[in-house]
Amino acid sequence: MKKILCFLLLSACGFKPMFSGNDTNIYVPVISGINGIELRNALNTKFGGPRPSDAPYTLTVTLHNPTTKYKAIETSGAATWQEINLRANYVLNYNGKPIARGTETASESYTFVQYLVAANASYNNAVENTITALADKIGSRAIAEVYKNENKSNKK
What we know:
There is one protein chain. With about 160 residues, the protein is an alpha+beta fold. It has one domain (about 25-155): Lipoprotein like domain (Double Stranded RNA Binding Domain, 2-Layer Sandwich). The protein is about 40% helix and about 30% strand. It has helices at about 1-10, 35-45, 115-155; strands spanning about 25, 55-65, 65-75, 80-95, 95-110. Helix 2 (about 35-45) crosses helix 3. The two termini are about 40 Å apart.
């Protein structure tokens, strides 16, 4: 009952959800590196699929190499826990003119073990989760800026 009442109140005020299922027309150019490919794929998925290069919005992303730092060290000096950090700079252009820019970071901790295969799997999972978090942050900001720009254009 509370959900229905909340929906009725919001629909009466003209509220329109930003993520209302409409695909955004944002082209994401190639992002260098293996992690860049994954980030671009995640962003395209968030935007409703890849767009042609002549789309009105272009999101250019520069992804920096991941950095790691030790989080826990045993008394023997062996690391048991690490954190991976990814940083990306982005610029959102509308018809060639920048409308938003920024830097986003994401991090994920993972268990670092002595066994090579397990250590690589743990690291790769952490990188994948970090890329997903980074795509969510950048994608949400880009969608918000597109929504704001479209509403500003419609009011003119």
